[in-house]
Amino acid sequence: MSVYNQEFNKDNTILRYVIVSLLAELKNKVYFYNQIDEDTSVKINIPFYYSVTGGERFLSDNFLYKPIEENYAIGDYEVVPRGVIQLDSVSIDSSRQTNKFVRSEFVREYEGQLKTYSLETAYLPLNLSFSTTIICSNNLEMLKATESVMSKLYKEILFQVDLGMFRVPGVFQVPDDFSQNRQFEFSLSDKKEFQVTLSLEVRTFMPVFQDGLLLSDIEKLTRNSTVNPNNKGIGMFRNGRIYFGGILQEFQYGVDDIRNAPDNNVLSNQSYNNTDEIQTGDKFLSGEVTSVKKEGEGEKSKNFRNDD
Fold first, then answer.
1. 8 Å CB contact between 262 and 275
2. Containing domain of residue 59, as a range?
3. Is the CB of residue 185 less than 8 Å from the CB of residue 70?
4. What are the backbone dihedrals phi and psi of residue 277, each rounded to the nearest 5 degrees, phi first?
5. For a tag on the chain, would you pick the N or C end, based on fewer CB atoms within 10 A?
6. What is residue 56's three-state secondary structure?
7. Where are the alpha helices (H) located in 91-193, listed in sequence order?
8. What is the CATH number of the domain that holds 82?
9. C-alpha dihedral sign at 126, 127, 129, 134
10. Helix, strand, or coil (residue 105)
11. Which tens digits make up the pLDDT trace of 242-279?
């Protein structure tokens, strides 16, 4: 199996996709310059990471036992300056929700092929609050980082959240002062680290598919389906299964005599002709368009192109 097709436990987690997209947007976004000498200035990027805080077992495995086995330095030795974000709360903003279910098309990978799905989807408006801390080495860096955050992040920044083969829009902002708390707070910890703390508010959407299907459910329904998972066309969810072949799997058309049309009125529900009393013969033209895959070439097609 190729690396592209490999799946991990972290996949198909929408909230994690939002965090990853936020970190990607913050990458190389905040920076400042240090003047080394009279003629030289150096650009200092502030990288952003997600908080690694966790249980005692997690910290021991990642910062004690693993470094010992791989001959790494023991402990947490990250770069300074750096930014650390942590998710504090998630809420649904029902006031921004419009149509509850609209038909959406998206692409997912199935056995090395990109399959298109069409499902009724409700996009739930989400508000995510992140507490952000920028760790600096001295007071001057703290002031420069504060100035860069105000210049680069205020007021709103648009970005895209990649949910695995389809995207939803998102926006994050640095809120104004509220609840008598300053927007930026300065502190000096026991480790002699200068910190700038602020809050990031993210607004985005989470797709909720019909019947509460998860992203993992769609893949399992496709893989376990014995109906037609290898057919071409668009996959649709009906009766607990995924069917492929297109939204209109079969469309019949025909050209008939004009005398079989509705009566003299424009609207067909105002009057009608009794077609049983009109002798017009067969239809002039009839046919169908179907998305069902046909095996081989038909006899009519071979005769048409004189295939002996």
1. no
2. 14-97+125-210
3. no
4. -95, 0
5. C
6. helix
7. 139-153
8. 3.30.2000.40
9. positive
10. strand
11. 877 655 556 677 777 766 666 666 665 666 666 666 66
